[in-house]
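Q: What structure does this chain adopt?
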Amino acid sequence: MRDLKHLIYFEDLLQEANNSLVKQAKAEGKRAIGYTCYFMPEVLLDLEGCFGVRLRAPRCTSPDIATYYMSSRTCHYGRSLLERALEGGYNFLDAQMATETCTVTCRFQEHLQMMDVIQNPDFFCEFTDVPFKKTENSYLHYRKQLQAHVLDKLSEKFGIDTSDAALLRAIEQHNEVCRLIKEIGAHRKEENPNITGYEFHVIQLVSLVCPKYLILPYLRETAEELRTREPEPKPWFRCKVVLSGSENDDPGFTQLIESCGAMVVADRYCYGSLPGREEIAVAAGQSPLDAIARHYIDTSMCPRYMEQHVMRERKQYLADLAKEYNADGIIVESNKFCEYWSYERTIDTIILNRDFGIPVCSIEKEYINNASGQLRTRFQAFIESIEIKKIQEGK
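A:
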């Protein structure tokens, strides 16, 4: 296929947290607000005068210093973030909006708060409590938390306009990003898609780590380009898979899967678009903050929700994705020592195959993918098993 016009530029933006668009926005006087979790609504961080940056640790090789503070028995993701912070990689941040969700990212953010790691005199870290259930009380509690720990702090510290009118403008911008990403991602449903899973992974990531108002023109051009982009005459892949799991902000992991012959057609993982790129609907007479709070609780597929009926809904959601995107199997990954996703991965491996008849490949990996040889062997064996299944079924 013809190369996407902006792909190399997008790849370059992912090389550092403090990328060129972040620097441009900072030079224009905007405040950079870091976050690590879906439960910190990015739309609130993209109010006029500030912008959200979902934190990553690109090219981190060995979090030795962070391991001293956090121990070797914690998720590599949280340690890699702290390592990058200790190296000065997040000194551009004006605030970190933390959530009481994942234990390891909480510890990372506590270190930012207590150790004076970020060399920025304006920097502060604020924690928001997130409920474990999807009930009316949960919506009320979450909404109050977002008001007290996000909107009030942004207004108090930086003079950000947090009025309903400002929130509605931020929602409008957020929804345009969602529409573009969903349109781009929908090409993966085609029998012979004109976009690879790797390309989509890169595009989705830049929409999370760059100021929205600066990345939007590039997303619009890319969506327009894909409307006429011709796919390869013959499909380059041997099967299609859904990739599900924990934090996955490394397009190289998707690229590794696709180099083995399986196209990643759906991204149901942390930092992915499913869920993550659904538009926020504000009903008549509803406050924008209430709409935002309900949206993020209702759309989340995070395994920290442990009620039985919610857990079953997550399995059904994955099975529905496999059907919608014509996937032949599902790869479920979790970072080593990730408590929530280790349980979820184990359950998915059994339930999805037993109850839905979907082949599943279960992977435990490090945030830093040093074991690419072993992973390649596992993926190749999984792809071959799918091909054998197709032959046996006469497909």
